[in-house]
């Protein structure tokens, strides 16, 4: 017989169990108790709309090798869990997932869910298709994706989300707070990720919860109660209850061993008190969930039931099922005075040396693609409206869906895995392809002059050229010697008449251009360089699978003028008979570097001067405004930290920018500066090194320079990842100060190595001064203002007075340890041979005299960048007279009318019920421009000249409730004494049904639903 | 703008999705289709009743750090999953878990579950408290734990499980098949683990499914259809659907990407066909689940719904929700002739060099404890019956529960983690402590001569000494000089009158012993050696927390005679006044080794001879039977493989015995052989080395030797794990053949390096010849039979002709890679200082002349080992006349009656409804003994002399159905032509209500429910 076990057992006899267990009914009926610390348990799941897996994979739960996550399980298991106890509550956030699930449910289940929503057990929070990023997103995309989610919730459930819930994005923007928060009608906004230094200070002075005024112009009229969580968006340590989470469960069956109710209650109370110590009022929120949790909702609720039961029996603190709405109402009822927060929460560092500023640039290609699609979607909806929405399709809806998903904080942010980035691109491409059909059909309908709302099968077949960026346009690369005309319809989505230069590739020099009236107009040929052709052919092969069969020889450039919300038509024809004279006129003058004299380029007021020997940019001269400024432009690269392979160091990666030294990129000298001059454009071509090519363009009618860069493949054979930046240096005495936009909207003052909210401890003097740039960045001194605008989201800074730096591309070999688990090393492959991804992009620069300011250019030209002219191509029949049978110019507005310079149409969209969604935006901030930062007016009757507006109602920004209702419900928060109420805020007045004139105050965006 | 992503997208436009998804209703109504291959999907979970976590931890889901498993989740989530589709089915196995869960459910939910059981959606399979081990378990424990589970199912649900489901145990016993299978009334038995060579052959000739006749004696009357799974008890590869399993789910939403219905259907069909190729009939079973799966049952059922729907749409094979019962009925209906299987499936190797024969010995201490408790439980239930079961307790139920759980295949098997082993011991101890009170109260009631069925508060306080094995018995270590008597009540749980020697520690030599009649009887004092005291004091300190305060000086031994199912009383008193003469008589003669002459010991017929110089055992002589045999006994150790730390090699561990060389243990010489001789006992003490101590005992009235060993702490400072074996070598010409018991019941012929069922490829000549020993092992030649009996489950073999080897203890430093994740390195600690665990155990040996055979000894003495005399201690008052006021002898049976020598009472237990559960067992196999292998009879009237049997019904072995009903339902399987039907099988006839005489044929066990 055994000794020890027997003895062991005898000792333990004291722990005799109680009698048999039985069914326990937990008391979960608790609501707020005034005198106690109320612990609001907020059951939630955070479901990334793509990250390590694609959105569909997350939804159905496939590809578990990448991540064990299945949103279908979450929603499937949630319903019975909520039905099991009516006190249980849950919030659901990401509508891209919810909509997928909803479509698959039986009607009976849908009705059950509707009851859960009606009873408040299930509450929709945030309510956009995704939890969008806040750094790399454009505000129009944020609005669109939120609207898409909110529309569905309104239609299916009749509900309006009350709360902003941006718990995961990597820093928080002003636009999120005031525009996507207050203007949407949210009562509060919650998030988790703020700078670790900021968080420490806020915990110390109990200012994690604030009243946030994100907009200088709209001030307190668009403020929102906002809370940063004390740590993250997860439960306190040891309170995780997913199926296999290893937090101790409550074992309350006295007939079993390990009964632990007292220990667990003590831990609960202690965690609650520790949070109460950094929180104002006696309400604290516990975010009970995290990424993709509640796959079996029961496991969480069972534990929370027990905690509520036993903690409340204990009585030291009070636990209850809650939602952020209930929490917000409790905060509001406490009548506390809150600190004011202005501006934003960028940049975000989660610890020393870990600035999440790399992702401002990560995946510049997809960031560019999203921006192009965003502009295209805006235009396509306009044309869809002009034609009349088709019930049977094609529609713009799939592009809307794809764009919405692409705003996710692991999508356009560039922090997803490569296969997921590919999925976003695929979705955008599918959406684009359908939207392209809408555009083609609408243009055909309009110019065939059939009924605008009832055009089913127009004859004209339009082609578009989404790959013009790589010199690929089959529609224009045609032989016109048979006498046909290439017809180009140029559509302008802006509300202003617009003049611009367009360019298309052509296969020979024998071409002429005529305008809508048939008049020959000036054009210019620019030779297509071999480098461009190589780039074109490689990528067409890589992505379309076959090399192009023809090679274009020239870019044909010419000026176009297009009415607001309308189009003009241009004709390209064989010009053999019109003689070589015109051709030689249009031919480009060549000029090469390596000469001692400086080179001045610029066909208009703006001149750029290059040094003759080095080919370096030296001077910026505007002959009109008399601005003259020394200017220098360079490239450099940062070497990403972490190449040494040590596990402890923080590497540079998809999220994090952690440079380990910066290295200038010297032009290698062997490539001469090449200047192409013509009547319309001057181009300066510079091969900076073997993998950076730059073209600077100056246009006759424009006072800015356009810089197009091709960066890549970034070499990594030395074993170092590299982050490529460009610096544009002037002599402006900018005094550490620069301005960067918030999601392409408001500009925010940035001061180098400084934070307004706390005493910054500088540990990353480069990465810690980077900010997201969506529209532009500028700086100024007493005499001048230097602005740079971008064509997509990038990271940027001003690291030296007078200088602007943009990060253009990143190729890294290490993962930065924030979950994506891949190095950001994008490639492009032909026949399984892969090279680093090249990126083609543009930025634009301009220097204005201080008294004029750059605001006007930034705002007007910024809109042109966002909404480029849309080109559609077709050919007429030989001998056909296009002009006779087709409308050649068109404006959707009254021909006498144009929007004021300070107003843009953000949305012009026919809804499924036939109504119109209209969004108008004032483009200027208070004080931004001496003439345009004023109240603007839009005459709707002239915007819709042929339609009778039967009804107009102003709504919240996401169009899911009447604006007046929203204002009525708005909570009025007390702020701390001594806090300035800010400048007087003006808002446009009500729209009178008679006049139908919309007033817009600076920075105001107004949303209307119209019926005709 | 970005190049590549844009292009990428364009390419992929072809994969346009279909329109929006919608709700899909899956067709799961399929039943068996005759012409097709039917794939029986059997949803199941395999829930270990303790392994890496304790049973309670598995149930509530705590300690997830050890393993992410929560049985509560399985059962919680199962109910809604079954309710969601009435075609879904599930089997549940382990009643220890199910009962925990059941007790915690509301009545409403219990009613729902009852409906699910009634409708057949939820079927209980196996139905014992656990899925017991089949190697280290005693058949009585197997019966008890099965009965406990089956009783509950019968009471709560009125159901009788139909199927044996031993899917995980590591090899399969004959007793499991015929006794716990056929005799329980099961229609089939399924399991997964058989030898890899056996499996390969069976796959090849389609003999994984057989008709198994496990008993030579009961033959076809106790056969059962049995199936070994083709691989394991899991689904085919890639068909796992736990929440985060990474098998591909069916993605059938055409509006999402990655639609994969055709691929998944193809994989299903291909896996089915590959299984059909090794299976007879067109029915195959897929075990859809594995360890602790279905934590969220929905995830499995959703996928299976889809498979059934789409596979049946496809039509190549036919899928259906099924259970092993449905599968068995389908097999039966196929009217196929099946191969016959006899004997068992031991030992089990899952691959070359990986024999799971280590666990036959792993944790010898807990194996011993289980066996002791098993015997105690049998006795305690008898006494509980005599007294009448108390509704308010104490009861034997918690010991029943603890013992039931301890039979689990990771409990008594020794393959659990250390903390789990501790938990089993704790449960046994708690159960024992309560049962001890039942025993004490019952004895007190009986001897106080109060009403036997209505005794509530007897005066006599009895103490028991469970730690006698380490010389610790506070009740006997008392000073009797005050004139009190130590009263010892000796209870005999066997149905025969019994004479035996008992021994108790006393603190001085001045003691005398009187029997029930008050007559002084012979006794013997044996000095307690310092080694025993050290062992005692260390372990009492280690496990009771404090050192004993007195030290006993002698073992007092004396012979006792006890009636069947009854007790005798003995009195120990101070013997100061009775003079030293008796004391000197009783004193022990000392004799030391190291002398040239041989030493002969033995107070009776049996003599053992030791060599004088070496102190080695040399001869075995029985003066009565004239047996004389050379005999040698040695110790050796195996060094466990895997100490080299290489990952690829198979280490020796808790499961696997993989020796890397064997090393003899030489007696170190410095410890002389010590012989203690007295009138009752002769003892030979041998200190084999510093960590092995052995005592050989010969008793006056007995013809066997008892060997007690203390092994440990096994040294490991050399870095080698060791497995300690003893070899007893005779000169018998056993011709490679030996016999080992099946779960303590039938003996099975073993032939070294040979398997009956296939042509064995020998790769482990030691480990591959090990078998589990529960009762004993023997071998024979033409003249003699050499038997060794054990006191617990151990591994053993005969590696050389004439020799028997037992493995006694194992201490290993490597994990063997089968999941437990710990090295089997048991320790015992005092004040945080730990030493290797020591094990105290016994084995017994005897050599009989061939014509007598050893069967009689093995069976009769085997019952005595299993059911030792139960000692209860108390003291009388000084001057009190115990005899006058107390019953001093008692028998539960008629005083003139005793059970025949070939019958034992396995169960005598009052049920909760007041009825009696009686199990009688014939102890002999056909041909085992010339006199006793015959039909036996038991006269129930004399077994229950004072009670009137109102009703008697014979039941299945687990007492959950009438035996006649069971026989009526039994499926009669066709076996392959040419298969012998085996010897004629006799069974006892029906019990006539008048006579109440039970007949028992050899090996028959009959179970009755009696009402009085």
Can you put this structure into words, describing what you see?
The structure is a homodimer of 1012-residue chains. By secondary structure, chain A is of the alpha+beta class. The first copy, chain A, has a domain at 38-355: Glycoside hydrolase 38, N terminal domain (7-stranded beta/alpha barrel, Alpha-Beta Barrel), CATH 3.20.110.10. In chain A, 24% of the residues lie in helices and 27% in strands. Chain A contains 20 helices and 49 strands. In chain A, the strands form twelve sheets. A ten-stranded antiparallel β-sheet of chain A has the order 20-26-27-28-29-40-35-34-31-32. In chain A, a hairpin with a 2-residue loop joins β12 (349-351) and β13. In chain A, α6 crosses α13 (397-406), α9 packs across α10 (297-314) and α13 (397-406) packs antiparallel against α14. The longest helix of chain A is centred in the middle third of the chain and has 30 residues, at 418-447. The termini of chain A are far apart. At the A-B interface, α1, α2, α3, α4 and α10 of A face α1, α2, α3, α4 and α10 of B.
Summarize this structure as a short list of keywords or feature phrases.
about 1000 residues; homodimer; globular; 10-stranded antiparallel β-sheet; 20 helices; disordered N terminus; alpha+beta; 9-stranded antiparallel β-sheet; 7-stranded beta/alpha barrel; 49 strands
């Amino acid at each position: 017989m055994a000794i020890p076990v027997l003895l062991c057992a005898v000792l333990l006899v004291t722990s005799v169990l109680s009698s048999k267990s039985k069914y326990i009914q937990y008391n979960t009926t608790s609501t707020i108790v005034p005198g106690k610390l109320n612990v609001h348990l907020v059951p939630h799941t955070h479901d990334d709309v793509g990250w390590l897996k694609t959105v569909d994979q997350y939804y159905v739960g496939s590809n578990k090798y990448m991540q064990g996550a299945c949103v279908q399980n979450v929603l499937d298991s949630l319903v019975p869990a909520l039905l099991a106890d009516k006190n249980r509550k849950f919030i659901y956030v990401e509508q891209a997932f919810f909509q997928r699930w909803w479509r698959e449910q039986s009607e009976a289940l849908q009705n059950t869910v509707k009851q859960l929503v009606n009873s408040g057990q299930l509450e929709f929070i945030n309510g956009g298709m995704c939890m969008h990023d806040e750094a790399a997103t454009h505000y129009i995309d944020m609005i669109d994706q939120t609207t898409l989610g909110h529309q569905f919730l309104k239609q299916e459930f009749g509900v309006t989300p009350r709360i902003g819930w941006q718990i995961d994005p990597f820093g928080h923007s002003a636009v999120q707070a005031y525009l996507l928060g207050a203007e949407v009608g949210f009562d509060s906004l919650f998030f988790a990720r703020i700078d670790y230094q900021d968080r420490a200070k806020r915990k110390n002075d109990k200012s994690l919860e604030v009243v946030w005024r994100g907009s200088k112009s709209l001030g307190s009229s668009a403020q929102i109660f906002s809370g940063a969580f004390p740590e993250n968006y997860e439960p306190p340590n040891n309170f995780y209850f997913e199926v296999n989470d290893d937090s101790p469960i409550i074992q309350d069956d006295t007939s079993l061993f390990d009964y632990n109710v007292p220990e667990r209650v003590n831990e609960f109370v202690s965690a609650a008190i520790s949070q109460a110590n950094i929180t104002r009022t006696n309400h604290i929120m516990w975010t009970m969930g995290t990424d993709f949790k509640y796959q079996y909702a029961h496991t969480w609720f069972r534990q929370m039931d027990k905690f509520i039961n036993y903690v409340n029996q204990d009585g030291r603190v009070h636990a209850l099922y809650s939602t952020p709405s209930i929490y917000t109402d409790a905060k509001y009822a406490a009548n506390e005075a809150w600190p004011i927060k202005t501006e934003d929460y960028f940049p975000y560092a989660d610890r020393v040396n870990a600035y999440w500023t790399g992702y401002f640039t990560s995946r510049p290609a997809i960031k560019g693609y999203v921006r192009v699609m965003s502009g295209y979607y805006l235009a396509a909806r306009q044309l869809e409206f002009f034609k009349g929405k088709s019930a049977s399709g094609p529609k713009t809806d799939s592009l809307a869906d794809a764009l919405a998903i692409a705003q996710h904080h692991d999508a356009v942010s560039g922090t997803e895995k490569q296969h997921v980035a590919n999925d976003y691109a695929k979705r955008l491409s599918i959406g684009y392809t359908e939207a392209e059909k809408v555009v083609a059909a609408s243009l055909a309908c309009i110019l065939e002059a059939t009924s605008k709302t009832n055009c089913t099968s127009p004859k004209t077949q339009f082609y578009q050229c989404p790959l013009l960026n790589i010199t690929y346009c089959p529609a224009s690369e045609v032989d016109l010697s048979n006498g046909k005309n290439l017809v180009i319809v140029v559509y302008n989505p802006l509300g202003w008449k617009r003049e611009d230069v367009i360019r298309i590739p052509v296969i020979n020099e024998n071409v002429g251009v005529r305008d809508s009236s048939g008049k020959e107009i000036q054009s210019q040929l620019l030779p297509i360089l071999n480098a461009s052709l190589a780039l074109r052919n490689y990528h067409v092969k890589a992505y379309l699978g076959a090399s192009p069969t023809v090679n274009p020889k020239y870019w044909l450039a010419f000026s176009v003028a297009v009415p607001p919300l309308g189009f003009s038509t241009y004709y390209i024809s064989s010009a053999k008979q019109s003689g070589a004279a015109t051709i030689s006129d249009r031919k480009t003058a060549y000029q090469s570097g390596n000469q001692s004299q400086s080179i001045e380029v610029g066909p208009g007021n703006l001149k750029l001067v290059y040094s003759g020997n080095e080919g370096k940019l030296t001077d910026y001269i505007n002959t009109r405004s008399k601005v003259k400024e020394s200017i220098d432009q360079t490239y450099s690269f940062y070497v990403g930290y972490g190449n040494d392979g040590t596990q402890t160091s923080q590497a540079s990666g998809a999220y994090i920018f952690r440079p380990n030294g910066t290295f200038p990129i010297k032009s290698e000298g062997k490539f001469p500066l090449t200047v192409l001059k013509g009547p319309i454009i001057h181009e300066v071509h510079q091969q900076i090194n073997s993998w950076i090519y730059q073209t600077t363009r100056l246009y006759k009618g424009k006072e800015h320079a356009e810089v197009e860069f091709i960066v890549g493949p970034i070499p990594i054979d030395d074993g170092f990842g590299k982050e490529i930046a460009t610096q544009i240096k002037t002599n402006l005495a900018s005094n550490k100060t620069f301005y960067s936009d918030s999601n392409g909207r408001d500009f925010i003052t940035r001061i180098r190595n400084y934070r307004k909210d706390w005493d910054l401890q500088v540990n990353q003097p480069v990465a810690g001064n980077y900010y997201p740039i969506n529209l532009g960045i500028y700086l100024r001194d007493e005499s001048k203002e230097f602005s740079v605008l971008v064509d997509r989201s990038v990271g940027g800074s001003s690291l030296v007075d007078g200088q602007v730096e943009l990060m253009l591309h990143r190729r890294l070999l290490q993962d930065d340890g924030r979950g994506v688990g891949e190095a950001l090393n994008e490639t492009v492959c032909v026949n399984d041979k892969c090279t680093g991804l090249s990126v083609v992009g543009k930025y634009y620069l301009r220097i204005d005299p201080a008294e004029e300011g750059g605001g006007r250019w930034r705002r007007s030209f910024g809109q042109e960048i966002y909404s480029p002219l849309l080109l559609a191509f077709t050919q007429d029949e030989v001998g056909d007279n296009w002009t006779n049978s087709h409308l050649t110019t068109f404006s959707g507005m009254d021909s006498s009318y144009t929007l004021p310079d300070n107003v843009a149409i953000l949305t012009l969209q026919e809804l499924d019920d036939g109504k119109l969604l209209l969004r108008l935006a004032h483009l200027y901030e208070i004080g931004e421009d001496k003439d345009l930062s004023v109240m603007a007016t839009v005459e709707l009757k002239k915007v819709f000249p042929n339609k009778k507006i039967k009804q107009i109602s102003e709504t919240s920004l996401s169009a899911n409730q009447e604006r007046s209702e929203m204002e009525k419900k708005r909570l009025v928060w007390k702020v701390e004494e001594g806090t300035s109420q800010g400048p007087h805020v003006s808002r446009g007045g009500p729209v009178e049904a008679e006049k139908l004139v919309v007033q817009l105050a600076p920075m105001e965006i107004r949303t209307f639903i119209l019926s005709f």
